Amino acid sequence: MTTARPTTRSKALAAAATTLVGALLITSCSTASSGASDASASDGKTNLTVSLFGTFGYEEAGLFDEYEKQNPDVTIQYESTQGENNYWPALQTKLASGNGAADVQGIEVGRIADVVANQGDKWTDLKGTPAGDQVANYPEWKSAAATTEDGKVLALGTDIGPMGLCYRSDLLGQAGLPTDPAQLAARLGSWDDYLALGREFKAKAPAGTAWMDSAGGFYNAIVSTEEEIYYDSSGELVWDSNPAVKKAFDTAATAAAENLTAKLEQFEDPAWDKGFGGGAFATIACPAWMVGYIKGKAGDAGAGKWNLTSLPGGAGGNWGGSYLGIPKSSKNTEEAAKLVKWLTDPEQQAKVFGVGGNFPSNTGAFDLVSGATDEYFQGAPIGKVFSAAAEAAPTQILGEEDAVVKSSLVQSLLSVETNGVSPADAWQAASKDLANQIG
Amino acid sequence: MSTPSTTAPPAPAGPRATPGPRPSLRSRLFRLEGVTAPYAYVAPFFLLFLAFGLFPLVYTMWISFHRYELGSDPEWTGWDNYTWLFTNPKFYNALLKTITIGILSTVPQLLLALGLAHLLNYRMRARNVFRVSMIMPYATSVAASTLVFAQIFGRDGGLANWLLSLVGLDGLDWRNGDLSAQIAIAVIVTWRWTGYNALIYLAGMQSISTDLYEAAALDGANRWQQFVHVTLPGLRPTILFTVVVSTIGATQLFGEPLLFGGVDGGALNQYQTLGLFMYQQGWAFGALGRAATIAWVTFLLIVVLVLLNTALARWRDRDTEGARR
What we know:
Distance between the termini of chain A: 74 Å
Order of helices and strands of chain B: HEEHHHHHHHHHHHH
Strand order of the largest sheet of chain A: 2-1-3-10-4
Largest sheet of chain B: 2 strands, antiparallel
InterPro entries (chain A): Bact_solute-bd_prot1, SBP
CATH class of the domain at 92-267 in chain B: Mainly Alpha
Structural class of chain B: mainly alpha
Radius of gyration of chain B: 27 Å
Organism (chain B): Kineococcus aurantiacus
CATH superfamily of the largest domain in chain A: Periplasmic binding protein-like II
Number of strands of chain B: 2
Number of strands of chain A: 11
Number of domains of chain A: 2
Order of helices and strands of chain A: HEHEHEHHEEEHHHEHHHEHEEHHEHHHH
CATH superfamily of the domain at 92-267 in chain B: MetI-like
GO cellular component, one term (chain B): plasma membrane
Distance between the termini of chain B: 37 Å
Shape of chain A: globular
Number of helices of chain A: 18
Number of helices of chain B: 13
Structural class of chain A: alpha/beta
Strand content of chain B: under 5%
Oligomer: heterodimer
CATH topology of the domain at 92-267 in chain B: MetI-like fold
CATH architecture of the largest domain in chain A: 3-Layer(aba) Sandwich
Shape of chain B: flat
CATH architecture of the domain at 92-267 in chain B: Orthogonal Bundle
Helix content of chain B: over 70%
Strand content of chain A: 5-15%
Protein name (chain A): Cellobiose transport system substrate-binding protein
CATH class of the largest domain in chain A: Alpha Beta
Keywords (chain A): Signal
Largest interface: A-B, 35 and 30 residues
């Protein structure tokens, strides 16, 4: 008995060691195979890998299956990372090592300026590929943002984020405000009108309900209607001298200081998600993709309560939207380009809009979706509202450090809302912070 | 002149001097194995350490002397990143928050663990059930526990505010307050690690001879006196170990504040720890050189803290020993 023990134990140890080594081998193999974009399968089929973040809607709309059916010699391997802030750094390390990136990769609009400025040698110029035909089919600003100075097109647009105003008609009704989209739009000639209406709402609103969700979100909605935001057309950082930025900041800070906001940080505060269904706020600036987000977060509790109208004054704007690119490391550039071309065709973009609310960036698809309505939003003509906003949207100038500037200003506005910092101090704090970070 | 030497005592003349028969190849191999085997046995760890411990450490230092944006090539800048760091108020803020959250979580955590271990050390029914349940919070993932606590500390309808309302206090905006957010994070950390430390203390307590307790009981010491005069002195090395480990953990605190409120660590960075600050620079802003600099400074900070801990403990030990003599 006693002599038997060590042997069983060493057997167990050996078994454990074998499993460990096996596991290491398996993982190294699997990374090797997933990293191999040249995986032209032995049966003559081309294996295309597609790596995206969040919800692009292709899988949800069944587009990959459809493409495989139309092209029997192509198989598609698709994966998606939930958070873009995890997806992007991982993609960067793969690009830097020239290994492991998929044939088709998604690029968020906030990153496109960085890609165009610094990564021209890491992405395929789509102009010479089958996807190149698509460039002319975008709003001019959408393709311009993905074009380098020497004319290379590094990515093709998937969706854009034209904005409307989503509102809880039940809460507006309780406060005695108009609930009909047209009547509401008539009261909203400008952002100042929006603030004035908020004061009216606050006076009569049910307890625990604010006019809007957050000052940061409000600020972002205002600047997203501008052409020049943090950079000027020559690529200079002008955020602190641009009157549009200061005015948007002050307007949002006013809302914060007057307690017109629910003080819920967008995407970070778990209570923000709950607020859509729980009625913590009555209005929120709504890029097209937010429609899908609201449905997901508010669920059945919000069905038939939300509605949609245009931004104050019928302003157009853009918040968000993505691109598809093909890394240089891809061994299937031609096939990948065909897939990208097909995915960005009007028909496919319209299908994606029908599933997830991602608004097409292909102008040919505007007509296809302009008749769309949404039952969840009381049958609102979402296609019409967002098409009009997309057409009115200016050509935004994007810059490499947009995300850093925006995050700092939004954070400062949060401090006005939640920590009682004065708007002037908050602006100062953001200036100091940004001087340290990018100055 | 005989210099005191511990090595090489003079070989006794006689039997050694006469050359014996040459050792066979087999026995020489056997001896060789005896000499080299230990190195072979420890080699796997040290090889892995070289690859995954030392190399990243040195590489991080190399990066910290570069301007290295995510997605572009490194560019040598010398001490620029360090100058940037040491003149940046955000760094001192992060350092301060790391220390305050560290104290807020480590001190109650270790005191609670000590008390729990003392109670678990008594003979009682279902003792093992209690002991095993101690480790449950530690086995829970950071993500799961933080998400639950984020709900508990929610501003609208969170459990913590409901409890406050029971005693007639106004609810707090835990997430956005300064001290309140730090306390909330400290509670999560404490909840996760108290059981773990309690089990370590329990193990330490069980190595204390029961004779000591019996003798103390005969002398009329009650349980509190036994705890103070028998348990605590017996546990000193264990306590030092947990203090060191908790200090390292507190300095690297990252997951809890990140999941609690994102990389900024609050509107006023009120809970941006060094770990979060590093992550923000590296992955949110793509400044890998700066992130590497923060990583290195944090590493040095931990080394200093551990040395300080050990020195303090040694100094105390010597002090008490001196007092005993």
